[in-house]
Amino acid sequence: MSTRVLFDLYGVFLTRGVEDSLLQITDVVNADAAQQFRQTYLELRPELEAGNISDERWWQQLAQRSGVHNGEISEIARALDSTFELNLQGLEMATTVIDAGYVTGIFANISPGMAQLARERFAWLEDFAAVIFSCDIGVCKPDPAAYEVAAESLGAPVKDTIYFGSNEVFVAAASNLGMQAFMYRSPQQVFDVLDGRNGH
């Protein structure tokens, strides 16, 4: 079976992405400060997720540029930790895909600190043939190089890799590169795509 299957971590196995969790920080700081923080966070995030800066130094820069106090930063970091809310349906789906014989991987833009937490908390990551984290490879989606590394990690050309993601920009970039890319909707959608691929 030559087809490889690649899933995003957020939106497939974890119910919320970082952007969703950023909406929760108004519990920590006022609305104006939260808006400035979110904007600064998203501007600075690629450098962190590419592994170009330590988490500690990055949070320091974020505090300086966003005007949020260090005490509030630690509270915000805890709020972002809520991104680790497991989607059991997604995990059960992936187990079925793996058991069917597909070489299957996880592909995520993620910071070094979050990547470490994920590996500590989720033993099931070891069930996948490859876990491609942006902070480990030095490049983030939607950079084409990230998709090429991911496909190579699974041992197949980009064109033989099916990607399910929850971010429209990332899915479009994968498609433009030649991957068979889909916005993830449900476990049944994955089964339907793979069954169609096999001509069942």
Automatic annotation (TrEMBL):
User: Where does this protein have coiled-coil stretches?
Assistant: none
Q: Which Pfam families match?
A: Hydrolase
User: By its UniProt entry, which PANTHER family does this protein fall under?
Assistant: ALPHA-D-GLUCOSE 1-PHOSPHATE PHOSPHATASE, FLAVIN MONONUCLEOTIDE HYDROLASE 1, CHLOROPLATIC
Give the protein's recorded name.
Haloacid dehalogenase-like hydrolase
**Top-level taxonomy:** Bacteria, Bacillati, Actinomycetota, Actinomycetes, Mycobacteriales
